[in-house]
Amino acid sequence: MYYCLLALTAASLVNIFKDYPVSVPPSVWIQYQLIGAYDGQKITLECHSQAFPKSINYWSRENGDIIPHSAKYVPEIIGDNYKVHMKLTINYLAPEDYGIYKCISKNSLGDMEGSVNVYKIPHPNAAVPTKIKSVAHDKPADLTYSPSSDQNGKRNFKNLIPKASRQFIVADKRGKLPGNCSGIDTHHFRTIAFRSFIEIILLNVFVRNALM
Fold this sequence. Notes:
This protein has 2 domains: 23-120, Immunoglobulin-like (Sandwich); 148-211, no CATH class. Helices cover 14% and strands 35% of the residues.
């Protein structure tokens, strides 16, 4: 609006108010041009424009396809004949929803567009996989032994029992280890003892079958 000031006489001034419309080509301003979001999220894109005569305003994808109102996309325009605030709400983001969105303003003097890039980020509640390095505490005993023969030709089965099976530590009833084993994993030694016990049983069966 412009104001006209007239001097009717040397001693008095008269203010005359009148609207003088001025044509303004569209201009677009976007505060957030990069928006990170995750699958399933609801987001709202915003765009501001100014133009006169009154502009036509809408949203489109990067390829130029106009985005209509739907349950998925909800465009909204708030403003007057000069200033317009454009919004686009996207419900439940899907993989195909990431990319460039354009807000476009057009009038008889031209057109102007702005863009918003929606990119994917990890879900804040998603479990982060962690790599756990497995370290073996003991090596499996090798049961593939061949009996040796002494000087008289008799087979000796003593070497069939692995040394690892003959040497193990057993905790007492309260689960306490001997004094020289403090700080060592009790469960670890119980596991070794149980495995060694099973190995000895299997070896005894093997020896009996070999002698029969």
